[in-house]
Amino acid sequence: MRIAIHLIAVSLLILAGFQATAEERIGPGGKEGRAPAGRIEVRPESTVNAGRIRLGEIADLDGFSAARKKKLSGLVLAKAPKPGKSRTLSRRFLEKTLGAHANGARLRIPPQVEVKREAKILSAAELLERFEEAVIRASGLPAERVAVQSLNREEDLLIPVESGGISIDFPAGTEFYGRTTGRVSVSADGREQHHFYLTGEIEITEDVLKAARDLERGEALTEADWIVEPMTFTRAARNHYTSPDEIAGKVARQTIRRGAVLSSRNLEEPVLVERNALVRIVAEWPGLRAETQGVAQQSGRRGEVIKVLNTGSGKAVYGVVRSADEVHVRM
Fold it and tell me: How far apart are CA 294 and CA 308, in angstroms?
């Protein structure tokens, strides 16, 4: 009977010791029987707001000098989770990470420690507004001419509380029509935390020239034949005219209906030199100019190269039409 009671007592002592070990341990450098040099009690759940998890953010520190407590509080334990996310640290990991820093302190660490990172919410609407601002800045276009209709991301964006903000950049040469992709960088503590790519549907409004009336093929344009109206584009249209200077002297290449956009597709330079017309053949060098008579073998518009017969030599040459009666040749 006495032996049984003794065994029960020993078992209770062992169990009590096991439970104490599960809750508190002496850090490296400490000895049993000696008063611990302070106590570190890690909370089961904590929230951080920076890119690194520091001891002072997840634990209560007692019994340390002010200097030592400050040093321990700033001890980096691990990388923080992404904004709005959480990660779990095990007791074994924390004991190993604390290492010699515990220096005999009594440790109280739960089996699992959950650490969550705070986040600021940038709504989908705010992100679209930021994207549009970046397009305006990068394109140099007036704000009233640019509209971002949608993004390929519709959910809110979580960014670090201490974030320095986001920046959106576009590759050199971006034309900003239709689907356009930019690089979004999220920074904090003066460094980029992460980046991703964002695509927006962009509309650009430009003033274009339109026909003010029906125009017949070959008809020359006058100031009364065009009007200026705004037009929205979702892709780059390189052939439309936006300035009256661009259409000065041009004629209709085909029949043009009232309200049609005037472009290089329906306008062209008039024929200046007709076939068999007499022209001057001009050759120029620095400080020297030579002319002779010729007969155009082809019709031509300003800037076009045509064949001309030199009436003096009887030889054919090729030159660029400069006016209704002048063709320049290269010598």
Answer: 6
Helix (H) or strand (E) holding 87: strand 86-90
More confident residue, 319 or 191: 319
Neighbours of 57 (CB within 10 A): 18
Measure the CA–CA gap between 310 and 53, rounded to whole angstroms: 89
> How far from 104 is each of 58, 68, 95, 303, CA to CA, in Å?
19, 13, 12, 91
Give the DSSP letter string of 289-325. EEEEEEEESS-EETT-EEEEEETTT--EEEEEEEETT
pTM of the model: 0.61
Dihedral sign computed on CA atoms, order 126, 128, 131, 135: negative
Position 163 pLDDT exceeds 80: no
- pLDDT of 318 reads 94
**Looking at the chain, how many residues does it have?**
331
For 57, the token pair is 């953010």
Q: Is the pLDDT of residue 9 over 70?
A: no
CA distances from 14 to 18, 35, 239 (A): 6, 22, 90
Spell out the residues 6+ positions from residue 259 whose beta carbon is closer than 8 angstroms to its own. Answer: 210, 211
Per-residue pLDDT of 120-160, as tens digits, reads: 888 999 999 999 999 999 999 999 999 999 999 988 888 88
Please state, in angstroms and rounded to a whole number, the distance separating the CA atoms of residues 192 and 21: 42
Torsion sign across C-alpha atoms 125, 127, 128, 133: positive
Residue 93 structure tokens: 């990991």
Other beta carbons within 10 angstroms of residue 248's beta carbon come to 9
